[in-house]
């Protein structure tokens, strides 16, 4: 959608509401809007806590998980506030997440959302529009809960897909809300006033300011003109310039899945696997690949070394908290364990080094937030930040050895092969620099943005772009092959040299396998959600998570071996240690699963969703959370 903004209607008053609006920087970005009207004075602490949480909470997963997490936070907050606050009664809450043409509107039921279709000249309640879906955020209540007023009953979530056209949604209180809280609204203004344009004739029931979300999916339509009257900014919007939200024909199949307690699903031998080695109408042949025999040494993510094997018969897996550190920003960087220290980045712009018992060894201040994961090698730590700097530090002291400026935001993590460091930027450019001193070897633009971490091997570099391209280079930057299988690629590709495969997920819900040598499609497997998590291999199976909340175990031929639902979107990389798989999720949990069957062995509940992938040493598991906390968990019980 193009040219998106919002305005407000009404007259001046004394109070201001809590309003936040974030526009996407590019067409593939996300629009985010939060609006909370004034409530009674005793409710203000709740409003401000929830407002800060809504803005600071990570939105990297599926929107449903964001809103479910928000409801959980509401429950926790109201339990800590005086009962006189009476939950959120008398407060309007509206939160919008828009990704492309898909739009999610979350609001209290006292908010009346009016839709205006400028092309058809039709106005009516949002819920009456054909194709709009109301999504349930919780499981249906059981008989014993029928007479209890649950907090989640106060909210509604609508989902729709916006086609081309000019539309608007006006957010106003319901008539019942106005009647009940006329006194509180009488002298309040819910957002700075704008001149009301003639045209739509939407009945707002009250002469106060309320937001209007409007969209224009017609690229050629002009942006509404802004002028100033008596020192105030004034937005006049004629009917042809009204823009907004309309019908959806797409139903979300995973409405309930992420919130049900999943059962392990093992595919019977006679069941047809959910993959297409030969799609209908396609000439792609089915390829049988040697599955291999596995290995006892599983690489530690980002460390450049292998994990220490622990005999599972000696110690029983049981996840318990060892220590945790509260920081001032989310920790989405995945940690690396290297030579008796654990390293991780934080969006507070620091790279941290802690001892296994939780003592800060050193921290390094970078030029921007750090979402990338550090890579450790040859007594060096290499990482990157949102400013666009790649930096190399002494692993023991944290002393800066060199910094290379790529010139644009970096989300992906550096990868190293011998003296070659590879990193991609959000401008779609891939850089090759030297580990020795950070000097530039080559760079080239390959897409509109690079989110996924590249893979590097003896004679190849595999990079992926957010516009859906997968490219193989040689170490000199020459393109060997390029494919574009489907949706955008945020998942870092997994390269299996022995099997001649590169495996990765996409936003079109598929897990793909291409030949590493030629770039030919070997097989693909469909899930129920976007696949933005990084796959790993334990030698016998490929493990990868999906936004549908499942962790999938596939044979190297693409056959489903098992899947396990973990209660929230999985955007992290599984960690395999001996016979155990550790995985974090947006369901605010970390789980230990039996590698061969997917049975859950142990779980730990965090206070917020987790994007960071886990790392480990001999005794502990480490990961960060979106709630500004870095965790260290004991992996074993007391030797029993």
Defining key terms:
640 residues, mainly beta, Phosphatase 2c, domain 1, Methylamine Dehydrogenase, Chain H, six-stranded antiparallel beta sheet, five-stranded antiparallel beta sheet, 46 strands
Describe the structure.
The strands form eleven sheets. Strands 2-3-4-5-9-8 form a six-stranded antiparallel β-sheet, with helices on one face. It has a five-stranded antiparallel β-sheet with strand order 1-11-10-6-7. Strands 14-39-38-37-36 form a five-stranded antiparallel β-sheet, with no helix packed on it. A hairpin with a 4-residue loop joins strand 33 (501-505) and strand 34 (510-515). The protein contains four helices and 46 strands. Helix 1 packs antiparallel against helix 2. With 640 residues, the protein is mainly beta. It folds into two domains: 2-241, Phosphatase 2c, domain 1; 257-636, Methylamine Dehydrogenase, Chain H (7 Propeller), CATH 2.130.10.10. Mean pLDDT is 75; it is low at 1-15, 140-148, 185-208 and 219-313.
Entry summary:
The protein has 640 residues and is mostly beta strands.
Shape type: globular
Low-confidence stretches: 1-15, 140-148, 185-208, 219-313
Strand content: 35-45%
Domains counted in the coordinates: how many? 2
Q: What is the CATH level 1 assignment of the largest domain?
A: Mainly Beta
How would you state the average pLDDT, rounded?
A: 75
Helix content: under 10%
Quaternary structure: single chain
Largest sheet: 6 strands, antiparallel
Structural class: mainly beta
CATH topology label of the largest domain: Methylamine Dehydrogenase, Chain H
């Amino acid at each position: 959608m193009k040219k998106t903004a919002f305005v407000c209607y009404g007259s001046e008053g004394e109070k201001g509401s809590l309003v936040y609006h974030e526009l996407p920087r590019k067409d593939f970005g996300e629009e985010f809007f939060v609006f909370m009207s004034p409530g009674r004075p005793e409710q203000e602490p709740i409003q401000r806590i929830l407002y800060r949480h809504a803005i600071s909470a990570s939105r990297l997963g599926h929107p449903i998980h964001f809103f479910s997490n928000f409801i959980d936070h509401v429950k926790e907050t109201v339990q800590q506030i005086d009962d006189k606050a009476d939950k959120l009664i008398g407060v309007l809450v509206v939160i919008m997440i828009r990704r492309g043409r898909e739009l999610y509107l979350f609001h209290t039921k006292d908010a009346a959302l009016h839709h205006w279709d400028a092309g058809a000249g039709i106005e009516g309640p949002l819920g009456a529009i054909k194709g709009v879906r109301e999504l349930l955020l919780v499981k249906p209540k059981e008989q014993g809960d029928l007479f209890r007023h649950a907090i989640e009953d106060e909210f509604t979530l609508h989902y729709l897909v916006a086609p081309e056209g000019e539309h608007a949604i006006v957010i106003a209180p319901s008539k019942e809300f106005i009647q009940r809280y006329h006194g509180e609204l009488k002298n309040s203004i819910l957002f700075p006033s704008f001149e009301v344009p003639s045209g739509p004739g939407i009945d707002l029931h009250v002469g106060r300011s309320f937001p209007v979300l409007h969209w224009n999916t017609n690229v050629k339509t002009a942006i509404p003109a802004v002028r100033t009257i008596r020192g105030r900014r004034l937005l006049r919007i004629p009917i042809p310039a009204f823009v907004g939200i309309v019908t959806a024909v797409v139903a979300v199949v995973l409405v309930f899945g992420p919130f049900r307690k999943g059962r392990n699903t093992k595919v019977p031998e006679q069941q047809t696997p959910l993959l297409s080695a030969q799609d209908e109408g396609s000439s792609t042949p089915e390829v049988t690949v040697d599955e291999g025999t596995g290995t006892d040494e599983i690489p530690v993510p980002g460390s450049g070394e292998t994990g220490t094997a622990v005999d599972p018969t000696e110690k029983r897996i049981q996840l318990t908290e060892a220590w945790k550190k509260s920081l001032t920003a989310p920790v989405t960087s995945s940690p690396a364990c290297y030579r008796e220290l654990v390293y991780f980045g934080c969006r507070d712009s620091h790279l941290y080094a802690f001892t296994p018992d939780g003592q800060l060894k050193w921290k390094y201040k970078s030029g921007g937030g750090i979402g990338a994961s550090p890579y450790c090698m040859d007594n060096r730590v290499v990482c990157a930040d949102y400013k666009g700097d790649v930096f190399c530090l002494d692993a023991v002291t944290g002393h800066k050895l060199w910094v290379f400026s790529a010139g644009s935001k970096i989300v992906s993590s550096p990868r190293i092969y011998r003296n070659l460091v590879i990193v991609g930027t959000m401008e779609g450019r891939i850089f090759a620099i030297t580990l020795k001193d950070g000097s530039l070897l080559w760079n080239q633009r390959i897409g509109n943005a690079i989110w996924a971490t590249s893979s590097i091997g003896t004679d190849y570099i595999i990079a992926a772009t957010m516009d859906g391209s997968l490219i193989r280079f040689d170490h000199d930057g020459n393109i060997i092959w390029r494919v574009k299988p489907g949706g955008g690629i945020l998942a870092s590709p997994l390269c299996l040299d022995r099997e001649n495969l590169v495996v990765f997920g996409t936003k079109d819900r598929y897990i793909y396998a291409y030949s590493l040598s030629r770039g030919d499609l070997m097989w693909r497997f469909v899930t129920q959600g976007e696949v933005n998590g990084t796959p790993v291999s334990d030698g016998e199976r490929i493990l990868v998570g999906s936004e549908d909340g499942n962790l999938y175990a596939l044979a190297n031929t693409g056959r489903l071996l098992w899947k396990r639902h973990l209660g929230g979107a999985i955007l992290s990389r599984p960690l395999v240690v001996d016979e155990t798989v550790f995985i974090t999720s947006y369901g605010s949990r970390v789980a230990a699963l039996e590698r061969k069957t997917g049975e859950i062995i142990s779980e730990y509940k965090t206070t917020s969703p987790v994007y960071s992938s886990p790392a480990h040493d001999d005794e502990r598991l480490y990961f960060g959370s979106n709630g500004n906390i870095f965790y260290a968990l004991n992996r074993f019980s007391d030797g029993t």
